[in-house]
Amino acid sequence: MFYSSRQWLLTTLMLAGSLLAHAADLQIQGLFRDMAILEVDGVQYTLRPGDTTPQGIKLIRADSEQAVLEIDGRQETYQLGSEISTAYSRPEMAEAVIYRRQDMYFGSGSINNQSVSFIVDTGASAISMNEAQARRLGIDFRVVGDPIHVSTANGLARAYKVNLDRVKVGDIQLHNVTGIVHEGGSPRIILLGMSFLGQLEMQRDGERLVLKKKW
């Protein structure tokens, strides 16, 4: 097949535009044991091993001198202050599918790397759990939490506002998610509330609730 000079120019420009659309300006801004601070296209990310930026740049390991990053399946070692202009393949949008049972959406996932079961509750402002569940997850809520009062069917009740380091459902993982620990035994099952759901797109499809990460 032969191309005219104009066709060749248009094809070249389209290919160049495609590459530019997937180019990332990456700078290593901070290195610590098991943590790296990256700036990608002007946005700062704090990563721990296994974490991935929305651009698909994954931290493998880090110490105070260097970080090993995986970009498009290739692992390279970078020093503090390194500046890289690299091309990457845009990752597919992460999603999770939760199925309805007894008019409720029940699912499973993890909080701070511990497996949990939950009910989707768009009426809850945050991920909510009882004190026994919090202890099982290793959350010392009376030490690290902020005391608050929440409204219940029986009036005001004491609770603690805490920070959940990692919350994962399906392929979706969010960091630094607000949680509420209630004194006593309620709720019986952890409520997946809006501190997590509000950062996602939600689509109901028959018996399924599809959650998609906003990238």
Features of this protein?
single chain, 215 residues, mainly beta, Cathepsin D, subunit A, domain 1, 2 domains, 10-stranded mixed β-sheet, 4-stranded antiparallel β-sheet, 4 helices, 17 strands, globular, disordered N terminus
Architecture overview:
The chain has helices spanning 5-21, 131-136, 141-144, 194-197; strands at 23-32, 35-40, 43-47, 58-62, 66-71, 74-79, 83-87, 95-101, 104-111, 114-120, 127-130, 146-152, 155-169, 172-182, 190-192, 200-205, 208-213. It has 215 residues and is mainly beta. Strand 12 (146-152) and strand 13 (155-169) form a beta hairpin. It is globular and about 55 Å long. It has two domains: 5-87, no CATH class; 95-213, Acid Proteases (Cathepsin D, subunit A, domain 1, Beta Barrel), CATH 2.40.70. Strands 8, 9, 10, 11, 12, 13, 14, 15, 16 and 17 form a ten-stranded mixed sheet that branches. A four-stranded antiparallel sheet has the order 3-2-1-7. The protein is 14% helix and 54% strand.
